[in-house]
Design brief:
InterPro entries: AbrB_dup (IPR017516), AbrB_fam (IPR007820). The protein is mainly alpha-helical. The chain is built from 16 helices and no strands. It has one domain. Helix 1 packs across helix 11, helix 3 crosses helix 15 and helix 6 packs antiparallel against helix 7.
């Protein structure tokens, strides 16, 4: 049955309200000169409006458009010179990404104790993966999807707000420049780039590739950057629009009923998040000392935040975007692919106990 026109109008109105509040939030935070105003402003303002009960709705289509724009913009930083630098640090990237997964697994034991939840749920709450991915995988192993989704969402929002602000206050910005500044803006070239990104992402999504709408545009941007095709740069106003679309989507997901029903769990989740962030920052500082990469780059590269938000932060702070992109993309693949196997290993060795309520649950075959 097709939805009624009134339903469509109501749904579009809720989406439009969220985008309007997100745009106002972006303008406000840009006016007061906060870090990443066009994504932090919409997250905070839309999240607060949702908590107050305003009928906002997250737009998946808007989020996809935002990821297309931002993915291409970030991928264009992969010039041939940048690719050489990334390959030179590839062993460090793999090692650091694996270490952040271990940090998340270790933090899960604290969450299980402080929140009094089972270890399955705590594990998939703590490893820094995607909201949807960790919820689905955790549920297959017998975990509870609601705490997992809330914790993962809190992680993305908190890291997006705290990491850029902290790095800015500490003066951790770099002096990295890019050849993109010399690349002219061409409406036709940009349209071609975005169409290629959409087509490739849709193909990946058709074959159920994880994070297709995030990694697809980045891959297209990387190819264009490496080939030095020179189609077009992505203008700053368009990247701001993309950030507003993504920030409004994140903020609108803070459903008031969901948050209030879990008010006892959230303080423990925030403590767990603090431990996770501190552990990942420690890994970043250690890797910076060993590898010679600047601490600002490494703290951002190993932070348990979303890849798009952290890469935007690197761009704003003039840090090495290709390095940050590479670290986070490797982490995404490593966490999504390896988390179930790490969980099985911890369960098989007896480190991760089986809770009584899930004792009879059978692990899924993959």
């Amino acid at each position: 049955m097709k939805p009624s026109p009134s339903f469509n109008r109501a749904s579009l109105g809720r989406v439009a309200l969220g985008l309007a509040i997100g745009l106002v939030g972006g303008c406000l935070f840009a006016w007061i000169r906060t870090p990443l105003p066009w994504i932090i402003g919409p997250i905070i303002c839309c999240g607060f409006a949702t908590f107050l009960g305003l009928p906002l709705k997250a737009s998946s289509e808007g989020r996809i458009v935002g990821m297309l724009v931002l993915g291409v913009a970030l991928g264009l930083y992969f010039t041939p010179e940048a690719a050489i630098a990334v390959l030179a640090h590839l062993p460090v990237i793999i090692a650091a990404s694996g270490t952040t997964l271990v940090v998340g697994a270790a933090a899960s034991f604290l969450l299980a104790r402080t929140a009094r939840i089972d270890h399955v749920t705590a594990f998939f709450c703590s490893v820094p993966g995607g909201v949807a991915e960790m919820s689905m995988v955790g549920e297959r192993f017998g975990g509870r999807p609601m705490p997992i989704a809330v914790t993962q969402l809190l992680r993305v929002v908190s890291v997006t707000i705290l990491i850029p602000t902290t790095l800015t206050l500490l003066g951790a910005g770099g002096s990295s420049t890019s050849a993109l500044g010399a690349l002219p803006f061409s409406p036709t070239g940009l349209a071609v780039s975005l169409c290629l990104a959409f087509a490739f992402s849709a193909l990946l999504a058709r074959f159920r590739f994880r994070n297709a709408w995030l990694l697809g545009p980045m891959a297209v941007g990387c190819v264009l950057g490496l080939s030095e095709a020179g189609l077009s740069s992505v203008p700053p106003w368009l990247t701001a629009v993309g950030q507003v679309l993504m920030g409004a989507h994140i903020g609108a997901q803070f459903d008031r009923a969901l948050i209030t029903s879990m008010w006892r769990f959230i303080p423990a989740a925030l403590i767990n998040l603090g431990v996770l962030m501190a552990g990942c920052a420690g890994v970043g500082v250690l890797v910076a000392y060993v590898s010679g990469i600047s601490p600002g780059n490494m703290v951002l590269a190993t932070s348990p935040g979303g890849v798009t938000e952290m890469c935007i932060t690197a761009k704003v702070l003039h840090l090495d975007v290709p390095i940050v992109v590479a670290f986070h993309i490797v982490r995404i693949f490593l966490v999504i692919l390896s988390a179930p196997y790490l969980f099985r290993l911890l369960r098989a060795t007896g480190v991760m106990p089986m809770p009584p309520t899930h004792a009879a649950a059978r692990l899924p075959a993959e």
